[in-house]
Design a protein that fits this description.
The chain is globular and about 55 Å long. The model has no long low-confidence stretch (mean pLDDT about 95). The chain has two domains: about 140 residues, 3-Layer(aba) Sandwich (Rossmann fold); about 70 residues, Alpha-Beta Plaits (2-Layer Sandwich). The protein is α/β, with parallel strands linked by helices. It is about 40% helix and about 20% strand. The longest helix is centred in the middle third of the chain and has 19 residues. Bound molecules: the ligand O=P(O)(O)OC[C@H]1O[C@H](O[C@H]2O[C@H](CO)[C@@H](O)[C@H](O)[C@H]2O)[C@H](O)[C@@H](O)[C@@H]1O. Ligand L263DTV3 binds next to strand 5.
Length: about 250
């Protein structure tokens, strides 16, 4: 007995019988619980160990797919291994982004910095292909919502809005996690993909994947994923069940 919902467990059993496989997961809210300080969001106990088991499985690729830049994801998570690292919501796929994007992003920083500075507790995060306005630590929740509304109105049509949990990002590329996952699965010739995610941008991945894939929403909220677990402990249980099934 895995303790997982029976339909999810059955889907994982069917998934485990196929090869090659892609096991992909979002980071924040799935492998690490959410914290006020993004740099404090380290993996939950057991995550590094189960990922190490999964990468050892035969013809299984493990991908970490995040809104974070890859460099930040590597540093913050402390994870290392032969993973595929997909950062910046899919914009960082083959390696670091070019400098041209940085110039557009820096113009955005100049525009947003004074707007964010007016709201106590709000923070601007400068990422490889986007600027994120974080409001999780803002005590005045009305001011937090108003700030995100204002940022939304500042986004011109050349930018892609990436809403998330207490964050709104303006991205200078239109990359998304769904397109990135399809590209990766195609490259690998994957027979099936598992994807776990908790936030709005993970819905692109849930929608992009197909009937033979296993999509799992972590936590509450509307979703296009077929399965759900309640929290990071549930996500870890999924990965541990997979590692057992893959005999890793
Ligand atoms: O795609 P993900 O791996 O889920 O990354 C999404 C964003 O995660 C980070 O922000 C979120 O987590 C923070 C740490 O727990 C939290 O403080 C913040 O409120 C959340 O929105 C990260 O800082 C962003 O760059 C990512 O895009």
């Amino acid at each position: 007995m895995s303790g997982l919902p029976p339909d999810l467990d059955a889907a994982l059993v069917a998934f485990g019988s196929r090869r090659p496989l892609l096991v992909a997961s979002d980071y924040d809210g799935v492998l690490a619980r959410l914290r006020d300080d993004p740099s404090a969001a380290v993996p939950e106990a057991g995550v590094a160990e189960v990922l190490a088991r999964l990468v050892d499985a035969d013809r299984v690729t493990v991908a970490l797919v995040s809104g974070r830049g890859v460099a930040d994801l590597r540093t913050t998570s402390g994870l290392s291994g032969p993973f595929r690292w997909v950062g910046s919501h899919g914009a960082e796929f083959d390696g670091p982004l070019t400098g041209e994007l940085a110039a557009r992003r820096d113009a955005l920083v100049t525009q947003l910095a004074p707007v964010v500075a007016r709201v106590a507790g709000a923070r601007l995060e400068v990422k490889p292909a986007s600027v994120a306005v974080h409001v999780r630590p803002v005590p005045d929740r009305v001011a937090a919502a108003a700030l995100l509304d204002e940022v939304r109105t500042l986004a011109d049509s050349s930018l892609t809005m990436k809403p998330g949990k207490d964050v709104l990002e303006l991205a200078v590329t239109d990359a998304d996690k769904g397109s990135a996952l399809l590209r990766l699965a195609g490259e690998l010739g994957a027979a099936a993909t598992v994807y776990l995610g908790d936030d709005v941008t993970d819905e692109d991945a849930f929608r992009a994947l197909g009937a033979s894939d296993v999509t799992i929403k972590v936590g509450d909220g509307e979703t296009d994923a077929r399965h759900r677990v309640p929290d990071t402990a549930g996500a870890l249980a999924v990965l541990e069940r997979l590692a057992d099934l893959l005999d890793a």
